[in-house]
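Q: Make up one entry.
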Amino acid sequence: MKIHKIERGEEYNARIILGDQQADFSAYAGTKTDYIRKRIASGKGLTVLTEGEEITMIQVLKNEQQADHVLLENARVAAHALHNTLRDLDVTSVLLVSNGVSGKQMCAFLEGLWLTNYRFDKYITRHEVPPYQLDTTAVSCDALTDTDLHLLTIALEGTFFTRDLVNEPLSYLTATKLAEEMQQKSKEAGYTIEVFNKKKIESLRMGGLLAVNKGSVDPPTFSILEWKPDQAVNEKPYVLVGKGVVYDTGGLSLKPTSDSMDYMKCDMGGAAAVAGAMYAIARAKLPVHVIGLVPATDNRPDGNAYVPGDVIRMYDGSTVEVLNTDAEGRMILADALSYAIQYDPGLVIELSTLTGSAHAAVGKYAIVGMGNAGPEAMESLKTSGFNTFERIAEFPFWDDFSELLKSDIADQKNIGGKYAGAITAGKFLEKFTDYPYIHLDIAGPSFNKIQDNYRGIGGSGVGTRLLFDFFRNRTT
């Protein structure tokens, strides 16, 4: 992937002229100016002009009275549609020219173009036709600097890493392999990583992680990623926690296969988002101290698996009555959240594909968010959600919901009952914190069974661009 400012003498297969409905495209249209005006007037977003081997694409972005984040999303979606035309014409390198659009719109268009360009075809050994791939985008826009394009490239590469992890099957991506993938990326990005093996996890008495792992033949891991630059703007570290259930059968509370277990390789989407975000933060050398915690295992119903009715002693010493082994994500996250206390964090953000309730509530259209960190942190995160169109729908986090988690034989149950499942999951996790905490349930937008414009098919990479934007804003 190459995104850079246009260089003297550079050659490309086509050029894309980006403007809005009021833009004057006559300098690029030659004798076809009237034709383009008619197409714009009729609502056509794209016009393709050819002269010999030269290809010019006039792309019009809607500029109705809409919020800025909607205009940026329109640019991403337009780029996704245009990518199909590039593929049909077998264009592998393009020049993107701003005809009056903002630098932010140009970046959003580039995001849509390159996120659409992503493919996960590692396991395809035979192609009926050669796969299409865009290689290079040169950019002509005075509002964008080399630094802007460098940071955009990093955000995209972090998102691709997240998508790759989510798309990998369990036959490759065990908990151990997930840790190895993050270790490999640490060498490229510059963050440090320490990986606890099963023996270390047992010595720490991380009961939640060990309980979920009991039914597996593969060992668990607990990874600590850290980016600590000399000139960090924060005195207390930010901590990111990601659910790393590399595959979830539901355990003895077995999931149905159709439309459930068949895509549960994505149940480590939170861990993947943390891994992608840490990669991007370190690659960009953002002056912020961030720690990532990734507890990882698969959840299987082997003969020694934990069962409904078990009482588990957690890392913090408290006890949990297990009523559903498919509520396993919160068990491993609870140990990680307790472990985070030692860092005295200024803020902890946890991401997880945690509940079907969150998915049912907002579908693929938003992340469900809640927490006790106060309005400033949540509003900043929601602003980044709009900037990246990885929007956050904030749910109430009232203490009343904790009543649903009371157990007769332990400190709390691991499920709350029929109602408010997304919220009771968050309240369960809050019990293991003593710091400002935000819970992000990404169950809805993390995985697409069918193509969802530039978000693709399979792992969407949700969470990585959101977190990278959040920390960029914290350091500027």
Remarks:
- The radius of gyration is 24 Å.
